[in-house]
Every structure is written in C-alpha cells, then in structure tokens.
Specification:
single chain; alpha+beta; Beta-Lactamase; Heat Shock Protein 90; five-stranded antiparallel sheet; elongated
C-alpha cells in the first residue's frame, strides 16, 4: 500500500495519510497491492466486499487464488504481471473466484509500482464487479434467442401442417398452393411479431435508457467539482450510450421503420451501413436502375429479409474482410447479389439443406424468393468466398410510385 500511496501522492499531491484513508475505504472497487511474487501485502474493504476474503485472510497469500482454475492453468496471473511490468499497466476483463467458490466478472487494471528510487517493488490492482451487467446482457441475448426459437417452432409446426394438407389433397398443384399460403402466413406472423417486439424495445427500453442518460447528466452537473464521482458517472454514461446503441440496432434488425416509410432501397442501404459498423466488416451497397421505385410490401420485406439473412450468415460464418450488396432493377426483374471474400464452404457437404445453422438460413432465403415467384442461388467454394444471387419479379407499388413521380 505504501508504494501505491507514493505513486498516487506524486500524481495528485495529496498527503499519504489521506491517500491511505481513501484507498482503504473505497467500497465499489477492489484495491490491493502485491509484491513481485504476487503475494498480497495490502487489501482494502472493497476487495473484501467483492471477493469475500478479509485482509487477514489474504495478506501473505498469492493473489492467483482469485483466478479460475483454467486461468491459473494458462498462467494468466503471471502473464498479467509480466504485461504490467513491461508496459506499466495491464487491463483485462475476465471471470474470477470468490471465497465461497462462486464466480464474478471483474474489469481489472494492474499497475507496476516503483519506489522513490525507481526500483520495481510490486503491483497494484484495481477491480470492479461487472457481473450484473454481463448477466443482464446474457439474459437479453437469451430472451431474443427464445423469441427466435418460438418463431422456428411455429415455422416447423406450420411446415408439418403443410405436409399433412399436401397428403390429404393429393395433387401437386393444390399442395403447392397450400405451401405458398402457409409460407405467406409464416412471413406475416414473423413480421408482425418482429414489429411488435421492435416497438416494445423502442417504447420501453429506449425510454428508460433516455431517462437514465438525463439522470446521469443531472448528476454530472451536480457533482461537477468531484473528479472521482464524475469519472464514475462518465463511465456509466459511456456504458449507457453503448447499450442504447445496441438496443437501437436490435430494434432496427427486427423491423426497420425506413422500410415502411421510405421503401426498400433506403432501408437496405442504411442496414448495410449499420451492419458494417456493428460487426466491423467493410461493406458496400450499390443500387442500379432503381430510380426511387417502390415495390409492393411483400416484395420489399422478403428481399430485405433475404439480404439480412445473407449478411447474418457472413457475420456468423464467413470471417470475411469485405462484403458487397447490389440491388438491381433490369427489365421486369429485381436482382439482389450479396458477395463476400470469406472462407466459403463446400456446397455438397450438406450445408445447404441441413435443418439448422447456416443451412436453415439458406433454405429460408430460397423459400422467400419462391414466395415472390423468383429464385435464390448460392455460389461458394472453400477459401473462395460466397455469393448469393436472388431474382424476383419486380412488382411495383403503383400508388407510392405515383406520389414519387408527382
């Protein structure tokens, strides 16, 4: 603790006694000091609160008991000290162990300590418990996965109903008509559910996040002269802004308002831009021969979802460095091409027709194209990237196009 206080005293000019009191009484952050061998020499009340060990139980013991068995097996404690010694500071976010064996997710900062003569004497570590945030994100992801699972289950139920009807009718033409009707019903059900969930996310979670941002700004104004508090508030505001951005992207993925308000071309262009930013993959969008044309709602939503599914497959499986999306109107045909330079896959290996994972997504694209009287084709090879080609009849929304031209 002496070395830490010397370091802080140099940085802040505060007295050593005041610094001792500050560090020892911080409850929201675990702060402890270890020697060059990783043996704990000081342990504040925040560390006791987070990890469950008292100062008497920890001082004299190596700090690596706070790491998980798998991290100890991989020499993570030693690697952190080595990084701090080499660079002066080492940051990490990982799972740690409490005294009772339970796990907590800690954002940590380890700093090398030096005495007044510049000799390396040990390390100071500051950690913050982010377990609630990580578990909340996990719960949110699980909730969205549950929604998708329910949609898939309902889809499977409708497919089973179609097969039963096909057998009863016994004629291929009637069976195809029933299939188309069921698939249209699936699409409408999915879109209605997506629209409802997107609206709920925007109305409830979005409003709560906005209220939280206003409250944080109010607290920043109130405690503007207290650097320690404002630093924490700024960090909370940054986290809130990040969550707000991710919630907006989720709502956009579920149902983009621009698709209803502005049409397919602006909505898809914006989605490609947002997708590129979200997954940090360069992506280009180009529209050819469209001239501001609007298409019927079924055409726009299905082409949009095909493009969305293709890009989701890229994010999940392709490991691509670049993606291009082309939407082209030629004669009476609307064409969509999504290409990536990723790892590709073997099309004869069962990926296209499996009932889960990427195969389910590709099958869904094919079905959506067929709903519009069109087709979807996949060209791919291992190490050669993947191209998705979709061609559907261009069914125009004459009423909207009339407003555009006038």
């Amino acid at each position: 603790m002496t070395e830490l206080c010397i370091h802080l005293k140099k940085e802040t000019g505060w007295s050593k006694g005041l610094l001792y009191q500050l560090v020892d009484n911080v409850r929201e952050y675990a702060i402890f000091v270890a020697d060059l061998d990783g043996v704990v020499v000081s342990w504040n009340i925040g560390a006791e609160r987070l990890f469950g060990y008292t100062a008497g139980e920890m001082i004299g013991r190596k700090a690596d008991i706070l790491f998980t068995p798998e991290d100890r097996a991989n020499n993570i404690p030693e690697k952190e000290m080595f990084a701090a010694a080499a660079d002066g500071v080492a940051e990490d976010e990982r799972w740690h162990l409490r005294k009772d064996g339970s796990r907590l997710f800690v954002s940590g900062l380890q700093t090398a300590l030096y005495d007044e003569e510049g000799q390396h004497t040990g390390y100071a570590k500051i950690g913050r418990d982010l377990t609630e945030r990580i578990e909340a994100q996990r719960d949110d992801l699980k909730a969205f996965e549950t929604v998708d699972e329910r949609v898939r289950e309902r889809t499977n139920d409708l497919h089973e109903s179609f097969e039963a009807l096909r057998l009863e009718v016994g004629e291929r033409k009637q069976a195809e008509q029933l299939k188309a009707a069921l698939l249209h019903r699936i699409v409408r059900t999915q879109e209605n559910e997506r629209k409802r969930i997107a609206r709920d996310i925007h109305d409830h979670i979005g409003q709560q996040l906005t209220a939280l941002q206003f409250r944080l700004q109010s607290l920043l104004t109130k405690y503007g002269n207290d650097r320690a508090i404002t630093d924490d508030l700024e960090e909370l505001r940054s986290i809130t802004n990040q969550v707000d951005s991710e919630v907006d992207f989720l709502a956009w993925e579920l149902r983009p308002p621009a698709l209803d308000d502005l049409g397919l071309v602006p909505a898809l262009k914006k989605y490609v831009t947002n997708w590129s930013s979200q997954f940090n993959i360069p992506a280009e969008f180009a529209g050819v021969g469209l001239n501001g044309k609007h298409f019927v709602p079924d055409c726009e939503i299905n082409v949009y979802r095909i493009a969305q599914e293709a890009l989701n497959n890229v994010a999940k499986h392709a490991a691509a460095n670049r993606v291009s999306v082309l939407l082209e109107l030629r004669d009476a045909t609307l064409g969509l091409v999504v290409e990536d330079d990723g790892r590709g896959f073997e099309p004869d290996g069962g990926d296209l027709m499996t009932g889960d994972g990427r195969g389910m997504g590709l099958l869904g694209m094919k079905e959506r194209a067929e709903l519009l009287g069109g087709s979807a084709e996949i060209e791919t090879a291992v190490g050669k990237g993947t191209s998705v080609y979709v061609r559907v009849p261009a069914l125009f929304d004459e009423e909207k196009n009339l407003h555009v031209t006038t």
